[in-house]
Amino acid sequence: MKKIVMFFLLLGLCACKSNPTTSLDKKAEVAIKGTWEITSVSYPGSDVISVNSFEIADSKCFIGSNWKFVSNNNTGTMAIQKRDCPSFSSPITWYINKEGNFVMKVLNAGEKAKRVREGYVLRVANQTATSFQLVDRIVVGGSSADVVYQFVRVN
């Protein structure tokens, strides 16, 4: 029953997001080429509520996760290896559009991105040569809040 309620809640959240444009921001994409680590995840009320990020794990499990972005073909990987969290590793496809949105699909091994119908749209913020943020807008208790994933360059 919990899964059914969560499914409809997530479906409602996803239905509110419009389809992102596909006009690419190549400069922003090239700037995040390489390997990155999430050093923090923050949002209002994080001490009392939990957020299931990307339908994979609690948002706090993503602290210390490794991400690799390849800008010439918009592919990459993400991996969680945090204690007391589910171990997870997956290929991804991604792009950054001219509106500053990071659009990502999490793939199963061997799966083609065109076969995956659902993805995630986050806003790119505070991008520098060594760090950037991805900001996800969520609805909690009828109010909007931002979940901020802080990335730091590993190499």
Question: If you had to describe this structure to a student in words, what would you say it looks like?
Answer:
The chain is mainly β. It has a single domain, classed as Beta Barrel (Lipocalin), CATH 2.40.128. Helices cover 14% and strands 43% of the residues. The chain is built from two helices and ten strands. Strands 1-4-5-6-7-8-9-10 form an eight-stranded antiparallel beta barrel. Strand 5 and strand 6 form a beta hairpin. The N terminus is likely disordered.
Q: From the alpha-carbon coordinates, what is the Rg to the nearest angstrom?
A: 15 Å
State the oligomer: single chain
Average pLDDT reading: 82
As residue ranges, the low-confidence spans are: 1-18
Keyword list:
155 residues; mainly beta; Lipocalin; 8-stranded antiparallel β-barrel; two-stranded antiparallel sheet; 2 helices; 14% helix; globular
